[in-house]
Amino acid sequence: MSEGQLTTDAKPWADPNATPFLQIKNITKKFGAFVAVENVSLDIYKGEIFCLLGGSGCGKSTLLRMLAGFETPTSGQIIVDGQDQAGIPPYARPTNMMFQSYALFPHMTVEKNIAYGLKRDGLPKNEIATRVTEMLSLVQMDQFAARKPHQLSGGQRQRVALARALVKKPKLLMLDEPLGALDKKLREETQFELIKIQESLGVTFVVVTHDQEEAMTLSSRIGVMTAGEIIQTGTPHEIYEYPQSRFVADFIGSVNMFEGRVIEDGKDHVVISSKELGGDIYVPHGISGVEGQKMAVAVRPEKVRISRTDLGEMRNKVSGTIDEIAYMGNSSVFQVRLDSGKRVRVSQSNLTRDDDDALRWDDKVWVGWADDAGVVVAS
Amino acid sequence: MQGKSRFLKITAFLGFAFLYAPIISLVIFSFNESKLVTVWGGFSTKWYAELFRDPQILEAAWVSAKIAFVSATLAVTVGTVASFVLIRFSKFRAKSLLSMMITAPLVMPEVIIGLSLLLLFVAMEGLIGWPGSRGVLTIIIAHATFGAAYAAVVIQSRLVDMDLSIEEAAQDLGAKPVRVFFDVTLPVIAPALVSAWLLAFTLSLDDLVVASFVSGPGASTLPMVIFSKVRLGVSPDVNALATIIIGLVSLGIIVTALHMNRSKRNL
Ligand SMILES: Nc1ncnc2c1ncn2[C@@H]1O[C@H](COP(=O)(O)OP(=O)(O)OP(=O)(O)O)[C@@H](O)[C@H]1O
Ligand SMILES: [Mg+2]
């Protein structure tokens, strides 16, 4: 999954001298007593595609609406391109937004919908026409230009909404669930288009999604949100391979989680004894723990090896029985019941078309993973 | 099951007959040759011709149309403003009070509306000398008053249904609030405005009671003229007039219904 990265390798966020294009400083939004967004701080750099990823109701839309100017933050500051946005009405902000509900103008044709923002900017007629045509073909809606929104399917409406937001080529473009209603093929195409637009125009994107795969492929960085807070920010690779909390590890991809206590705190390693696993887990570096401290180790299914024979040198290994096999085409997912009773998910690429020696239900197997395959997360 | 459905059909038929028999007989008798309203004397359109030669009727029809047009327009304007205040402004104290007050004329007996408006006009004339005399102007004001109540109800229901995010989208694309109102809000609620206007127009054309209270010597609306004519005995030309009005009203209802249907599909 982390291989799907499409964006360029520049890492402005790692450069201490770079000035962020969008600065969100300690933003909080309360609706009455309910805190929808809590003390969020973010720096987003020019040309990034930043994904806000989180479950339903975690405050993603509310955060975007504050950036667009539709909600006033209860406290905190938003700075775009060095300019404090407080008190600037939505129509004067250098941002555009694609609404989660699409918000197409029901009385205007597709063409008029897309042209509306350009008209407000007072562009000459022929330029409006060219840019609208360009956008229509980009989202593959040319033959629907004269239709009204109520004559379109959900996915088509979404494309019109996307085109309407893109056509103004704003400095900062916010997309609320931009591709949710599209089928897989069109979604992938549109993802590529978004990245192309980002590269050619240097538009900075903030994209809200609850589809982790989309966040992975699309974004330069991801901010994982839950209950109004951003709990981790990082590149897709960092988020996937180095989750800092159980929630993030669980939310992005699937993961096997083993809880245990530190029994040995060596110079370059820690050993965690896990009752759940029915064995010890050897973690080489990067953490330090006090003996007796509770910890959890997260291991991705594709990093777990599975074999009928003993896994030899491997330090982290236990035996179990195959409970279930799910054939997914490109890979197979095994549910292994360990001797301790815990179930472990293992995924394996299907390298050959037919494997006579394939693992079967109820096979006795060994599962194990390399020393550095597991990540220790706050428990 | 069979018996029940037949019973329903018969009841429905009787109900419709009860509602429409008088109207149908009125239409038929408007083409009656005879001067006696209850005796059929052969087909003729002479009462229609007579009608169009009656200056009093023509004058009254013109007055009524003028009043209905102006008062409906006023009613829709006031109703729109009131609806916006009630639906869009979330925080103000007198909101539920205002909401009740704007709908009060819907349930208030007409006699009371008429009487209270009359008293108001008389008092105002005494205090500020306006409106100087009662007539077309006072009827317009009176009709606009209760028409606005009906208009507000119609417009409010549309405003409640309206998706606020399309206004936000327009703002986001660079339209200032006034622009947003004319580019987005108004077109979206336009069908409701048209329905409200037609409703207020019809109510104004219809009204006898309130108009009788607030009218002065110079101004007689069509319903007032018909009423006074009928008091002197029913003459067939009144039938003809009623038939024309029924025709116009039916046309209006059909147009409104078609219009509402279309715009509902457009939503
Ligand atoms: N105007 C409002 N008044 C009160 N509560 C609100 C309001 N708008 C949003 N909320 C609440 O704030 C929380 C966050 O809402 P938000 O729309 O930001 O969620 P979201 O992360 O976009 O979810 P989804 O993925 O379902 O779109 C929700 O619990 C919601 O009920
Ligand atoms: Mg949302």
Which key terms come to mind for this protein?
heterodimer; A: 379 residues; alpha+beta; Rossmann fold; OB fold (Dihydrolipoamide Acetyltransferase, E2P); 6-stranded mixed sheet; 5-stranded antiparallel sheet; 20 strands; globular; disordered N terminus; B: 267 residues; mainly alpha; MetI-like fold; 11 helices; 80% helix; binds adenosine-5'-triphosphate; binds magnesium ion
Which range best describes the helical content of chain B: under 10%, 10-25%, 25-40%, 40-55%, 55-70% or over 70%? over 70%
CATH superfamily of the largest domain in chain A: P-loop containing nucleotide triphosphate hydrolases
Chain pair sharing the greatest interface? A-B, 23 and 20 residues
Order of helices and strands of chain B: HHHHHHHHHHH
The SSE order of chain A reads EEEHEEEHHHEHEHEEHHEEEEEEEEEE
Q: What is the quaternary state of this protein?
A: heterodimer
The major pleated sheet of chain B works out as: none
Question: Would you mind describing this structure in some detail?
Answer:
The complex is a heterodimer of chains A (379) and B (267). Chain A is of the alpha+beta class and 379 residues long. Helix content of chain A is 22%, strand content 34%. In chain A, helix 2 packs across helix 3, helix 2 runs parallel beside helix 4 and helix 3 packs across helix 4. By secondary structure, chain B is mainly alpha-helical. Chain B is built from eleven helices and no strands. In chain B, helix 2 crosses helix 11 and helix 3 runs antiparallel to helix 8. The model of chain B has no long low-confidence stretch (mean pLDDT 87). The chains are: A alpha+beta (379), B mainly alpha (267). Chains A and B meet through strand 6 and helix 2 of A and helix 7 and helix 8 of B. The complex binds adenosine-5'-triphosphate and magnesium ion (MG). Magnesium ion binds next to helix 1 of chain A.
